[in-house]
Amino acid sequence: MRRQAKNRTSFTRRALLIGTGQAAIFAAITARLYHLQVAEHGKYALMAKQNSISERLEAPERGIITDRFGTTLAGNQQHWRALFMKAMAPDPDAVLENFYRLVPLSDTEKARITQDLSEHPGYIPVLLKDWLDWPDMAAIEVNTPNLPGVIVEEGASRTYPLGPLAAHVVGYVGRPNQKEAKENAVLALPGMRVGRTGAEDAEDTALRGQPGFVQTETNVHGEVVRVVAQDPGTPGQTVALGLDAGLQQIAMQALGNNTGAAVMLDATNGEILAMASTPSFDPTLFDKGVPSDTWKSWMTDPRHPLVNKAAAGLFAPGSTFKPTVAMAALKCGALTPETIHDCPGYFKLGNHIFWCDGHIAHGRLTVTGALQVSCDVFFYKTALDTGVDNIHAMASIMGLGVDLHSDFPHTQSGQVPDLVWAKQRGIHWVQGDTVVQGIGQGYLQLTPLALATMIARIGTGTNITPHIARRIGGALQPASIPGAPQPLDVNFAHLAVVRQGLFEVVNTPNGTGYGARLTIPNVQMAGKTGTAQVHNNTATEKAAGYNDMDMAWAQRPNALFVAYAPVENPRYAAAVVVEHGNFGAQSAAPIAHDMMTYALLHDPAGRDKPLANPPPMPPLTSPKVPAL
Amino acid sequence: MIEPGSLSLHRPFRERSFGIARKLMRVNWLFVLCVCMLAGVGYAALYSAAGGSPEPYAQSQIIRFCGALVLMLCIAMVDIRFIAKFSWPAWLLGVLLLLAVMKFGHVGLGAKRWMSVGGVEIQPSELMKLFLAMAMGSYFKRATPEQTGNLLFVLPAVVAILIPVGLILKEPNLGTAVITGTIGATVMLGAGVRWWWFAIVVAIIAVCAPIIYEHLHAYQKARIDIFLNPGADPLGAGYNIIQSKIALGSGGFFGQGYLHGTQNQLNFLPEKQTDFVFTIIAEEFGFFGSIGVIGLLVTIVGLAYYTALSCSHVYGRLVALGIATNFFLYCFVNLSMVMGLIPVGGVPLPLISYGGSALTAVMLGFGVLMSIHVHRDVEFPETEDL
After folding, report:
1. Candidates A22, A33, A218; nearest CB to B290
2. Which parts of the sequence belong to the Penicillin-binding protein transpeptidase domain (chain A) (predicted)?
3. Which listed site, A245, A257, B111, B147, has its alpha carbon 20 to 30 Å from A484?
4. Which of B250, B254, B332, B336 is the best mutation test for A, with the most CBs of A within 10 A?
């Protein structure tokens, strides 16, 4: 007990001593504080007034997008805008009142400004109005004393010189949404844009750049006296696409008023040379804000102008699928190059009759001949002998129904069914399903981009993958380096048989694509037509002697054409889909013909500088279709 | 049946534990009030730091504080003898966490200090300060004056201090290492270890200071150099100190008015919501407001000493002394740094600065302190019953 008491006294003494020491230090801090805050107040108040240097982040300029030859596809245009820094205004609400009186704004805009102001710290400038015109500018300049904290500065907006002609492939930008701005503070800066579709989306990181800053000296009222230091930041990098702006325009012109899509690839490395989708839209509207009636008309248009039909539009491939079926049959032995099937004009499976197109009896055909005249009966039989799983496996090799891992955003893989696919979806697969898959109908769904990949792979025998970016900041992208693609996992003797068939389609009078043969000397194209029904003709329609041309637009078959050229050493591969264009040979093949002619004359593939003196381009052959 | 007088605050409790209601009454509510007032000041300062908006700092900080307050009161209800049993396990846990942060922690501002446990960011060195005070209290709770005068008896305690201090130095975090060592030393001093031994250690450190300086990291040297001559690079590393002093000095006696401090609102001080939060109060409320806040801080330290002095058992006295010193050192280092008295180091102003790690650590310590206060009359067993 005594020991404890003694301990306690000792502790109390020491604790009081330590405590006194700490209290003394607190007293010293307070004394120092008095010295700083009261005794030297005058000196520091003066420094604060003369002060001071404040820092503000500035949005970097977004990188430009060009085609392979340097033609600007997406650029920046300077304009004036009004910003507001709440921290600089003694009475922010009064300043806003004054501003609204000078520059009237809609209620929704006012609500956005109020929300932005409440969400960001006072030193982050909030956008009041973009695209100031001269009367606005003048009104703000004259009233500067009533508008402390309002800054007028130059900003950049996005322009698209080709406008609707390259809207889908180049894409568009939009203001960051609240979630994005929260995750990345840089995006909260006024003027920052985020790529939403196409190349703007694919290469958004490279295009965005690093923010800069401005250090300004301000007086006590927060008015800028002078700029002390400025760092423009790192502007976004220039992205050169594989696209050829000239070819792109030809593709759009050739598609004309049709609804559809056309893709052209460099068949040796997969660079996208042209990617057209119609109808199109004006991409600059997204930067300024889309008027609500325009938006409404886009949303209600049955032809879906905002959808990039080349990369995300899903279509039954029709007869353009036959080369893949032929490759599968040759591989599994269901077919040899010499195998002959007889076509009486129909094919009977059980009680069901599958007709050849137009009920024509083609007679005795080899696989080459069947491709040439696009005999359906031959491929009904072949598909049945090959089996749906073998067809699926070959389709995957050709890049159909699989994820191509392209750098182009929002691409669809489509579907090429096999038995596993059917089982997963609870579909009872019957032989008739395999039969129609042999001619590219049934459950098949593919994009024009995938079809172009397929025909390029058949033409070159390499596993090319479509990609959009050719150079970023001048550096050639790995996928564009010549010789990057690997040989396809197929028998090249089989490939030669199929290529012969595709050659005959375009270059023999009996071929379905003879009308689209090239008219320029010394070069030939190989291709395949396709006509895919989108409507099951009912018995009554058949009895009435239906005619596809007479049907309502939305029920007419889709027209397709795939091609590569030159035949000996393929460099260009194209796929064209014209929605409800009836026959592939009639409406899709001429479009491919025009694109191929332009490509062969200008030869953009592998070049960074255009040909000095390209031969003149013959007039377009693709028929002009009146608007809906 | 409630006996008459059983609700008396002064009825001593010795052997048996007491009910929650009685415990709650024995909590030092003046202390809790001061802590809440300080958190209120913090809310006002963070609201101003965001330019007059509860987002993004004030709102989330006050929510964290409320959680920590509940945690503190829960710990206060736990018998201090039960807590004492975990002194050494806590010390060991702290050391393991420090080792873990070296291996798995992420790097922030050039040092590995932080790690994430189940989504919660923790800074083990903050917890280590409390755990070290508890371990020291446990080691010396039955020490006789003969033992505290015996170097061989004191040596293990010195090792127990040096292990975490060394690990924190390795992070590297010089400031926290010095604070941790100081807390350990203060508890030893309170336990009765000879005062002139400390004098010798301090003398040795003073002599070795130039050698230590040579072995510092580049950024630590830079801080000391800038502290000695802040005008050398006014837009670079000395910027914070100069702007901080201007903010304090332009406050004057009554300040520039809430939300009207030019230094604060025009954002001359980056990251002012964390270490430099005091400048906001000083600029907008002046010297008047500053001494108000310092008064609150002193009251809290003083009440912690009151708990230490009124406690009947050695463990409580020593741990309370350690917690009081910890809080004092936070305030001292932060305020001196803001005023340009010592080199800048990332030490927040407790309960006011934005950030969860220091807040949680401080409130955990206050929980233990309140448990000591509630159980100040209990008797520790004479022998270890582990």
Report:
1. A33
2. 260-596
3. A245
4. B250
Structure token digits, residue A528:
């395949």
With 70 as the cut, is the pLDDT of residue B114 above it? no
Residues A237, A251 share a domain = no
pLDDT tens digits, B44-73: 999 988 878 887 889 999 999 999 999 999
Residue numbers in B near A89 (CB within 8 A): none
Task: Using pLDDT thresholds of 50, 70 and 90, give the confidence band for residue B225.
Answer: low
How far is C-alpha A444 from the geometric centre of its chain's CA atoms?
A: 23
User: 3-state SS of A255-280?
Assistant: HCCCCEEEEEEECCCCEEEEEEEECC
Nearest to A47 among B49, B235, B246 (CB): B246
Per-domain residue ranges of chain B: 20-194+240-374
In contact, B283 and B244? CB cutoff 8 Å? no
Pair (A268, A324) in one structural domain: yes
Q: Which of B259, B265, B319, B331 to mutate to test the interface with A (most CBs of A within 10 A)?
A: B265
Contact A33 B282 (CB under 8 A): yes
Q: Which residues of A touch B58 (CB under 8 A)?
A: none
Closest-CA residue of chain A to B314: A8
Tokens of A489: 């996992």
Please check whether residues A181 and A320 belong to one and the same domain.
Answer: no
- Number of compact structural domains in chain A: 3
pLDDT level of residue A224 (50, 70, 90 thresholds): low
Report the 10 Å Cβ neighbour count for B74.
Answer: 11
Backbone φ and ψ for A217, nearest 5 degrees, come out as -95, 130
